[in-house]
Specification:
Blueprint lengths: L14 H40 L14
Length: about 70
C-alpha cells in the first residue's frame, strides 16, 4: 500500500465565518482603543485637579457652564 500524496487535504475554511470573526475582532479593538483614550483623558483631568490642589489653590474643580 502506497500513499500517493502523503498528506491529508486541508479542510476548506468558511469565508463567511472568517469575515464575521474579523469584524468582531475589529469591533473589539475599536472599543479597546476608545476605552484607552477615555482613560488617558480622565487621568489627565484628575492630574490637573491634583496639581491645582497641591499648590494650595481653592475651587480647583471644573465648572460646567450651561449651554445656551
Amino acid at each position: 500500500m502506497t500513499d500517493e500524496g502523503g498528506e491529508k487535504p486541508k479542510p476548506h475554511e468558511d469565508e463567511g465565518s472568517r469575515a464575521i470573526e474579523n469584524a468582531v475582532m475589529l469591533g473589539f479593538f475599536a472599543v479597546l482603543v476608545a476605552a484607552g483614550i477615555w482613560l488617558l483623558s480622565t487621568m489627565a483631568d484628575v492630574r490637573k485637579v491634583q496639581d491645582c490642589a497641591a499648590q494650595g489653590r481653592r475651587n480647583c474643580g471644573t465648572i460646567d457652564a450651561p449651554v445656551r
